[in-house]
Amino acid sequence: MDPLHHAIAARRDALIALTQQLIRIPTLNPPGRHYRDICEAIAARMEPQGWRCEMIRAHGSPGDSEAYPRWNVVCTHDAGRPGDTVHFNSHHDVVEVGHGWTRDPFGAEFVEDEDRIYGRGACDMKGGLAASIIAAEAYVALNPDHAGRIQISATADEESGGYGGVAYLAEHGHFADVQHVIIPEPLHKDRICLGHRGVWWAEIETRGRIAHGSMPFLGDCAVRHMGAVIDEMERTLYPLLAGKHTAMPVIPEGARSSTLNINSIHGGAREPEDGYTGLPAPCVPDRCRIVIDRRFLIEEQLTEVKAEVRRLLEKVRAERPSFSYEIRDLFEVIPSMTDKDAPVVRTTAAAIERVLGIEAGYVVSPGTYDQKHIDRIGKLKNCIAYGPGVLDLAHQPDEWIGVGDMMDSARVMALVLSDLLGTDSHSPAPVA
């Protein structure tokens, strides 16, 4: 067993304990609870080992407030020798618990005969954060005078766009001197995620005229207008999107086509407050809104994605008297995909083959994650997602992470550091 492999193996109990510690801090988003607590816990671990840890609040970012400040931590190990900077970035926020749990969502229960740790965020992505910390600790213990710098960041709000986390760091130049980024999202320990599809969120509102519900002919029902919009989507837009395919290795297979989800629909009287037992007022609704979530491919242009919906709405307007609508952009992300020949991709692929004895697979995520900000704002293309866990478990009840998967991923990440930054007795090896 080589020294680096042995150093990771010796830290198995530490990896379990760290993962449990992170899960037990309920960093729920929304609203953004305990963000500072988890950043302080990471800093308290790293600083005694010689890491410089910077606490960064994303002042003015979406969601940031005195009640729920958006805190991030960036920990850096710099031995003073020239070389590249390798940055491991993980988001520390988790989604709501939801229903259907059979275990304490924040109990971080370790079931030894299953080799699993359960809890909200175990898979997405506190297990990956813990694995990157253990990998870096093991590497530094063997190579305290390594070349370059190692950074580990735990950042806010990835689950709600990442604007209080990686986007803020990128806007303020924190990736300016970084050459390699690995994001330990749960995309299987034998796969390298090169990027993600694009996204456009928009709100469509149809308008009508309010009237008494007993005389709807005196009004104009905005809900019926929206029904015509949705019907046109079913008849023309959905078949059009299903016929678009990408060369991107998106998983699962269904996401290799363009997709559209109707995220919500609201029309007419507001939902009554809990406990209200009366009937709604008899009115013709004069407003109806839907939010659409359009995921698009690297072969598509955002302008055309938007134009498809606009043409559909104009077609409905031509067919329906008094039809009126407004469309508002909410959120957009351009697709991102790192080249398979990028240094961090080749180095990680070589490490996977050494640790697991198999060739690395290459995938693209159907949804976005923080690579978008490193690419578009940070202007750094040499970025991948690689980490332990099964993506299908994310956001599910009884979410879990496998300890063996974390150990293997930690070995891979430690080898990446060794290959990119070298050992104390050797210069960094060139990436083949």
Q: What would you say this structure looks like, in words?
A:
- GO terms for molecular function: metal ion binding; succinyl-diaminopimelate desuccinylase activity.
- This is Probable succinyl-diaminopimelate desuccinylase.
- Keywords: Cobalt, Hydrolase, Metal-binding, Zinc.
- Belongs to the peptidase M20A family.
- It catalyses: N-succinyl-(2S,6S)-2,6-diaminopimelate + H2O = (2S,6S)-2,6-diaminopimelate + succinate.
- By secondary structure, this protein is α/β, with parallel strands linked by helices.
- It has two domains: 3-196 and 335-422, Zn peptidases (Aminopeptidase); 200-270 and 279-333, 2-Layer Sandwich (Alpha-Beta Plaits).
- 31% of the residues lie in helices and 23% in strands.
- It has helices spanning 3-9, 12-23, 35-46, 122-142, 166-171, 222-242, 302-319, 343-356, 371-376, 403-421; strands at residues 52-57, 71-78, 81-91, 110-111, 116-118, 147-155, 180-183, 191-196, 198-207, 259-267, 287-296, 324-333, 336-337, 361-365, 383-385, 400-402.
- The chain has a six-stranded mixed β-sheet.
- It is elongated, with a radius of gyration of 24 Å.
- The two termini are 24 Å apart.
- The relative contact order is 0.19.
- The mean pLDDT is 96.
